[in-house]
Design a protein that fits this description.
Number of domains: 1
Number of strands: 0
Mean pLDDT: 82
Largest sheet: none
Structural class: mainly alpha
Low-confidence stretches: 4-9
Order of helices and strands: HHHHHHHHHHHHHHHHHHH
Number of helices: 19
Length: 438
Amino acid sequence: MNGLLTRVRAVFVGRQTGRAGVLAIVALTLASKAIGFLREMLIAYFFGATALVDAFVVANNIYGLTVGIIGNAFSVAGTPLLVEKFVKDGHPAQQSAFFAFLRFALTSALLLSLVLAIAAPGIVFLLAPRFSPETHWLSVKLLWAMLPMALGMVGLSLAGTYLNARRRFGLDKLGDISVNLVAIGFLFSAPLIGIYSLAVGWSLGYFLAACVLLGPLVWRWAWWKGRLWTPEIKEFITLTAPMLVAYGASQVNTIVDRAFASSLDPGSIAALGYGWRLALIPTVLAQAVSTVQLTRASEMAAARDIKRLKSSVREILLKGAAVMIPVSVALVWLARPLVQMVFQRGAFDASATDKTSLALVCYGFGLFPQFAVLTLAASLRGMKDMKTPVIAGVIAVAVNIILNALLVRPFGIAGLAASTSAAAAMCAGIMGAMLWQR
C-alpha cells in the first residue's frame, strides 16, 4: 500500500522525467477522455445532432478563438520563459514571473469577457452566417451564459503552464477531468433547462477546476500585488505576438469548417464535432508527447544543445509513425461501428450516425500529421521560435479554406473533414523542413 501511495504521489506532486511525464499524461488524459465521452454520449442522448448542439458548438468555439488564445499563449510561450527563469535564476524568480503572468492574464480575460458580452450577436453571425434566426439567438444566449468560463479557461491554462514548467505533469491533467465531471453533473438538468445545462456546466467546470489548481499555488502569496507591466510580460508579448497568429490560424481551421457546414443540412456542425472528438482519442499520445517535449525542448534550448533536440524530435516522429499509422487504418475501417457503439441512442439516430462516421473516416487519415504538427510545434516553441509555426499555420489555413470551397458542394461533410487532414499534413511538412535546416 505504501508503495502504491508513493507512486500516486509521484504522479501528482513529484518532478517527472520525460518518459514518466508522458505515461502520467497519457493515463490521466485517457481517464479524462473516457469521462469526456460519457459527457458526449449524454449530449447525444439528450440533444442528438440538432440545431441545439450547433448553437452550443459555435458559442463554445468563440471562446476557443478568443479567450482560448490567451490561455494557449501562456501555455506555449510561458513554459519556455518559466523554465529559463528556473535554470538561470532559481525558483523565486520563476515564481515571481508566474505571478506577473497571472495578473496580466486575468485582467485580459476580464476585458475580453466585456467585449464578448457586447459583441456577441455580431460575432455569432460572422462565424455562422447561415444559421436560422432562432439558432442564431440561441447561440448568442449560450455565449452570454458561458461568460464566467473566460476566467476559468485562463486560470486553468496558467496553472498548467507553471506545473508543466516544474515537471509536475500529472496535476495539470486533473483540471480536464474536473471540467468533464462538473459538465456531466449539470447535463442531468437537461429535461428542465435544455441546452443551457451544457453551457452552464461547461462554464462552471472550467471555473471550479481553475480554483482547485491555482489555489495551492497562490493562497500563501499576495500575487495580485505588483505591476501589471513587467520585463517578463514584455518578453512574453514579444514571443506571443507571432504565436497568437499561429493559434488563431489553427482555430480558424475549425471555424471555417463550421461556417461551411452551416450551409449544409441541420446537424452537420454537430456531426463534424462528434467525429472530431472520436478522432481525437488516438491523439492522446501526441498531446502527452508534445506537452513533455515543450518542457524538454526548453531545457535543451536553454543549454544550447540543438543537436540533441533535433535528435529527440527525429526519434519521437519515428516512434509516432509506428503507432499512429496502424491506428489510423483501424479507425477508418471501424468508423461506423464505433460511432454506433458510442453515440447511436436516444435523439442520435441512424442519419446522424451516417454523417458522423463519414467525418470520422476523413479525419482518421490525418492522425499522423496531427501527431507530427504537435511534436514539431512544441520543439520549435521550446527554442523560442514562434515564427515558424505561424508561417506553417497560415499556409495550412489557406490550403484548408481553398479545399473547403472546392470540396464542400460535391462531398459535403466528407470534403470538410478531408480538407482539415490535408491542411495538417501541409503544416507538418513545412515545420519539419524548417526545423531540419537549423
